[in-house]
TrEMBL record:
Keywords: Cell membrane, Membrane, Transmembrane, Transmembrane helix, Transport. It is found in: Membrane. The chain crosses the membrane at residues 16-34, 46-65, 77-101, 108-130, 136-158, 170-188, 224-246, 258-281, 287-312, 324-352. It holds the Pfam family Mem_trans. This is AEC family transporter. One of its GO terms (cellular component) is membrane. InterPro entries: Mem_transp_PIN-like.
Length: 353
């Protein structure tokens, strides 16, 4: 397919355009409402708690209420493996981005570059663009992310050993619980007793595992779906509201924040994309277009709130972290749509299945 045809197909794809416009418009709406004083200073934090404790767990769990086949299982396991390996690679590689900085800044910036806001910023966009399959892949990819965020990042930022409190925080996180429960149920469904029901998508009679609530208990699945559908708009409103609270002029004066933002939203996703293309072309770990796009969007996200809280809580370059978090959020709002278009153009070449 010629490049002109690929570009035309990409920019006339209503799903891509509407997903990008929805993200930008709702974030800008949150920004405008905060500047006008309609949203107060507590709005962003309150919406964040709702999304992280209710909407995203529902979204993650529901995404696994789907049939399992050889293709999705293969891609799911490949994403899990890649998600663990890539964070090990980034932990070492990102230090090279900041060799000109002193040891403390280099350590902090490396961690902030490695760990993005995949849960709060990334998953809602993936869900809006790629639906339940993308959400499922994003949830699986996040397993490696959370392992290293709550272990390596904590130890590196605090200078302490892993604590019971931090392990408890990781294991009892609602999104983590929903992801692991959903993943386990998704994997074991071929071994479980089945019940007949009507598939809500095809409207055909099917036999599914008894816990496939999308078929066997729609009265449970539907309320969870309503909660899940809130994750994207609430997250985007909260992002916009948060941006409306900070002085762009003050944050923009820090050149390091801009350099960090370029590394976080451009270089890190590009490294991932290059590796994924190599793994697919060489057939070492071929992945689908949705799987690859999910990973790139997740990696183009701004500073992770948890990583930033570590830096601020342990007084590790707190001001720099705050500025970098703000600028990288603006950078991600700009770059994620660009990455979506780039991914759509690459998809048109047929590199990924």
């Amino acid at each position: 397919m010629q490049l002109s045809s690929i570009l035309w197909k990409t920019f006339t794809d209503s799903n891509i355009i509407s997903s990008i416009s929805s993200t930008l418009f709702i974030i800008l709406l949150g920004f405008f409402l905060r500047k006008r004083g309609i949203f107060d200073g507590k709005f962003g934090k309150m919406m964040t708690k709702i999304v992280l404790s209710v909407s995203l767990p529902a979204l993650a769990f529901n995404s696994f209420m789907a049939p399992i086949n050889q293709e999705t299982m293969h891609h799911g396991l490949a994403i899990l493996v890649f998600g663990i390996i890539i964070y090990i690679i980034l932990i070492f590689v990102t230090k090279l981005f900041y060799l000109s900085y002193d040891a403390d800044k280099r350590s902090v910036l490396s961690i902030l570059t490695t760990f993005g806001s995949t849960t709060f910023f990334g998953i809602p966009i993936v869900a809006a663009l790629y639906g339940p399959k993308g959400t499922m892949y994003a949830s699986i990819f996040n397993i490696g992310y959370r392992i290293f965020l709550y272990s390596y990042a904590y130890i590196a930022m605090s200078g302490l050993q892993m604590t019971k409190k931090n392990i408890k925080q990781m294991l009892l996180n609602p999104v983590v619980i929903a992801t692991f429960v959903g993943l386990i149920l998704w994997l074991i469904q071929p071994l479980m007793p089945t019940i007949s029901g009507i598939d809500p998508t095809t409207k055909q009679a099917v036999n599914v595992a008894f816990f496939r609530i999308d078929v066997t208990a729609p009265w449970i699945f539907k309320p969870l779906s309503y909660l899940a559908s809130l994750s994207s708009p609430l997250a985007w409103l909260a992002i916009g509201s948060t941006l409306g609270e900070v002085s762009f002029k003050a944050a923009a004066k820090n050149k390091t924040s801009w350099y960090y933002t370029a590394m976080k939203t451009i270089v890190v996703p590009a490294i991932n994309l290059l590796l994924l293309i190599i793994l697919t072309v060489t057939k070492i770990m071929p992945l689908s277009q949705i799987a690859v796009a999910t990973i790139i969007i997740m990696m183009a996200t701004p500073t992770a709130a948890v990583a930033a809280s570590y830096a601020i809580g342990f007084d590790r370059e707190a001001v720099l972290t705050s500025n970098a978090s703000f600028i990288s959020t603006i950078g991600a709002v700009i770059m994620v749509p660009i990455w979506i278009v780039i991914l759509a153009i690459i998809a048109g070449t047929g590199i990924f299945a």
